Structures are given as structure tokens and as C-alpha cells.
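Appendix C reproduces, verbatim, an entry submitted by the partner laboratory led by Prof. M.T., so that reviewers can inspect both the input and the predicted structure.
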Amino acid sequence: MTELLIVVAGLAGGVLAGLFGVGGGVIFVPVLVIGLGLTQVHAEAASLLAILPTAVIGTWRQLKFGNTDIRAALVIGTVSIIGVQIGVVAALSLPETTLRRLFGLLLLLVAAQTIRRAHRTR
């Protein structure tokens, strides 16, 4: 059953990443925490690692369609390396419950922004 849950989460995360450019963390982290009982920190670390192949393949496919701004991606990626270092230190210093609440707040903010944009474009 655990393997099936992991496969379904991977498929769902991949589909969302291909459709919207997001998905890994939104799907993987809750599944790993709630479904598999991992700690928030371990789930976030696993999600970061799992998204690498998705990002590589997704980028390769989008490059073929001319949809990738390589310069912007390089800048974002380079600066993100610094950000992830800061984030890891912060995640390791926060209590588990605080980290879970902050992740939940992030999901709510992303959902609210998505809903707002959807209504604005009508």
C-alpha cells in the first residue's frame, strides 16, 4: 500500500508540474507527512530531491516548445541556492508544529492567489 501511495503521489506531482510548473511540494509533502508519517523536515527534503528529475524533464520538454527563459531560470536557480541554505537552517531550528503550520499557511496563500487570479482573468 505504501508503494502505491508513493506512485500515485509521484504521478500526481508530475502531472501538476507539467501543467502548472508546480506540484512536487504541494503534493509530495502532505502525502509524505500524512500518508507515510515522515516528519515535516524529512518530507520537505525528500520533496526537494524528488523534484529534480521532474524539473529536468519538464525543462527539456518546455525548451523544445520555446517556452523557457534560460537567463531568468539561471538567475532564479542561482539565487535559490542561497535561499535554500537559509530555509534549511530555519526549518531545522523551528519546532515541528510551527513548521507544519507555516507550510499549511503557504498552501493557503498559494490557493488564495490562484483563486484571485482566476477570477481576475474572467
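The CA atoms of residues 63 and 87 lie 29 Å apart. Additional entries are available on request from the coordinating office.
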